[in-house]
Write a structure and sequence with these properties.
654 residues; 15% helix; eight-stranded mixed beta sheet; Rossmann fold; 38 strands; alpha+beta
């Protein structure tokens, strides 16, 4: 073994290139099961970010199920989700370009079943009794300031009028689910100014002979006790994840009200940033088994629940991230990943088959997101850290040390620290293998990925820390994570960087404007003006800031005080901005106003806009460009030489 070369942190040469990060894999999302076949949506950066639908047969053969000119994505709530459903080999999906719903026999030519022009559809549940789909409709043709959301029934063959309205009156809906016996419909709904993780209610109604809904009633949910997910058992019993105790735990509908099934300080649900089966956390196996995923102690875990005895059996699993949980032939299938392995569509098969004890078995891979196999010598594994923050409280993060088997740093040198602030802000970060993080650690950067107060996964009390305090609590926690590592002697206190996208971009800009801990920053489609966001953003998030900032316009002054754009004189360190020019969630003018403010003040600033990108980058060439431009920016700001050539980015005021 050769002796590692001594070189400064940040300058190490790594085989984990921007091109490898951008094109080395696909996104595996939104599973569906049809008989013995498993389907999934596959986001392909190399195809311009297109979402393909892939079918995997019982024999394990995978093939594309829709033609290459179609992109299975919906723009409902702008974040999409729930873009397709499958029944008896027929796929029903939303096509991104025209937002029409198509009907397609797997491998055949799709045919439209909805009209074009201003209607969007998502989150499909097949009503076999009436040969139709029940789904969310987002109507932009109603002549109102904001689109109107309803639950509608779509005939499986043609809907010239855009479907039959079943449920209306609420501002938002998700998870419309028809019971297996075809007699009932259950759904979740909520109204402004709330978000679904704050006040989502579970409702159910009974179908009339005409297929409309008659008797309907609320079963669970209110402010602070949201319902996160629902599902019907094969016997048409209703199960759901409800935050009654401060955690999203499992319940089922009982004669005398909801029955708790597995009480625990753990989350059996996820925040509904989009709708559909991609968020599924439980599925029904061979009776009486219910398979479930739950978040506890920094990782997602797998378990089975006996629905008769309520025996809860955690299963040993190599995965720390589990999503889109379904069941095929009685066995759970999901997207799983770990710090050392990329995401994969995975099936768990008990040792004696689905009818055997769930406690022993094996995990079978149906499809890997990437053929990438990183040499452990370049792989940095996360360490969960708990650190002190304001008010005598604790916060959480994952810390990644620099790691490259070919290099060592000079004696006494400390690495740059890249603090990552996740989006949402009511979201969270986890520990799947992320080549984007390894890109940095293998070049000699330390990385800390922060689950600041307000993040999901730690119960309602932790999530509510952010209420009225966005731009304060999240900023405190990010800088305290950095200072904690600096005090431990792990990182260079003079080379602290903060980075974030969307809401994480706001945390980044607020940290740079209102504190003086960080020496550089990077904003991916981040928010500089809270008031502009409140006025410009789409319906789903248009009242979100009421809870995490203050009611608007009644407390407009709070928005002004917490917006970096209004206090550009307080920005005193370099920032690089990346922005999709088609972004409807955070419009480009947000980034452009901040760039102009820094330009006027004479602070080094770079702006990299991308044509054809929305809220989040999907094209491989843009993902690669952003990574390398950010690296180049830091090399010039902190004056270290890169070990490999990178296309320069224009830095003003340098």
């Amino acid at each position: 073994m050769s002796k590692p070369r001594v070189a400064p942190y940040g300058s190490w040469v790594s085989p984990i290139s921007g091109s490898l990060v951008a094109s080395g894999g696909v996104r595996l999302e939104v599973l569906a099961v049809d008989g013995a076949d498993v389907y999934w949506a596959e986001g392909r950066p190399a195809e311009g970010g297109r979402n393909a639908i892939v079918r995997c047969s019982v024999a394990g053969q995978a093939m594309d199920a829709i033609p290459g000119q179609f992109d299975a994505r919906t723009r409902v709530y702008e974040y999409g989700g729930g873009s397709y459903a499958v029944k008896d080999g027929i796929i029903y999906f939303s096509n991104f370009r025209d937002q029409r719903v198509y009907r397609c026999v797997s491998g055949g030519q799709p045919e439209t079943i909805t009209p074009g022009g201003g209607m969007r559809f998502a989150d499909y549940s097949f009503d076999a009794t009436r040969d139709r789909l029940v789904c969310i409709r987002e109507d932009h043709t109603a002549g109102t300031k904001q689109p109107v959301h309803t639950l509608v029934a779509l005939d499986a063959h043609a809907n010239p009028g855009g479907g039959q309205v079943l449920v209306s009156g609420a501002d938002f809906y998700m998870y419309p689910r028809v019971s297996p016996d075809g007699t009932r419909l259950a759904w979740i709904q909520w109204d402004h100014p709330h978000m679904p993780w704050d006040a989502a209610e579970l409702w159910a109604g009974r179908f009339n002979a005409s297929g409309t809904l008659g008797e309907r009633r609320k079963l669970a949910g209110c402010w602070g006790e949201s319902v996160a997910q629902i599902g019907w058992s094969p016997g048409s019993n209703l199960y759901f994840a409800w935050e009654k105790t401060g955690w999203w735990n499992l319940y089922r509908e009982g004669k005398d009200g909801p029955e708790p099934l597995a009480p625990a300080e753990a989350e059996f649900g996820k925040p509904a940033w989009w709708s559909g089966s991609g968020l599924a956390t439980f599925a029904f196996g061979t009776p009486p088994d219910l398979w479930c995923a739950y978040y506890s102690k920094g990782a997602w875990r797998l378990a089975s629940l006996d629905t008769e005895t309520l025996e809860f059996r955690p299963l040993p699993s190599p995965y720390t991230e589990i999503s889109s949980l379904h069941a095929v032939n009685g066995c759970p299938v999901f997207v799983g990943s770990s710090p050392a392995q990329p995401a994969a569509v995975t099936m768990y098969v008990p040792a004696g088959g689905a009818k055997d004890s769930p406690a022993s078995g094996e995990f079978k891979t149906l499809k890997k997101a990437s053929a990438l196999s990183l040499d452990p010598g370049y792989l940095s594994l996360p360490e969960e850290i708990e650190f002190p923050t304001e008010g005598g409280l604790k916060a959480f993060a994952y810390y990644y040390r620099p790691q490259n088997k070919d290099y060592a740093a000079p004696t006494g040198d400390l690495p740059l620290l890249r603090v990552m602030s996740h989006g949402g802000p009511t979201s969270s970060t986890a520990t799947p293998l992320n080549p984007g993080i390894q890109f940095w650690t293998s070049r000699g950067f330390a990385v800390v990925d922060v689950n600041y107060g307000g993040s999901t996964g730690y119960g309602r009390e932790y999530r509510h820390r952010l209420n009225g305090a966005w731009g304060i609590v999240d900023v405190d926690d990010c800088l305290n994570a950095a200072l904690f590592l600096a005090r431990r002697g792990e990182v260079d206190p003079n080379r602290l960087i903060i980075e974030g996208g969307s809401a994480g971009g706001y945390t980044t800009l607020a940290a740079l404007a209102f504190r003086d801990v960080f020496k550089a920053g990077c904003s991916y489609y981040g928010i500089g003006d809270l008031e502009a966001l409140a006025l410009d953003t789409h319906k789903f998030e248009s009242r979100y800031l009421d809870s995490v900032v203050a009611p608007y316009p009644e407390q407009r002054q709070v928005y002004i005080e917490r917006s970096p754009i209004h206090q550009p004189e307080r920005l005193s360190c370099p920032v690089i901005f990346f922005q999709g020019l088609d972004d409807k969630v955070v419009p480009p003018n947000q980034a452009e106003m901040m760039v102009e403010a820094l330009r006027r003040k004479g602070i080094p600033v770079a702006y990299v806009p991308f044509e054809g990108e929305g809220h989040g980058f999907r094209k491989a060439e843009n993902i690669e460009r952003a990574l390398e431009a950010e690296l180049y920016f830091y090399s010039r700001i902190f004056r270290f030489d890169l070990g490999e050539p990178v296309e320069p980015v224009k830095i003003e005021n340098l």
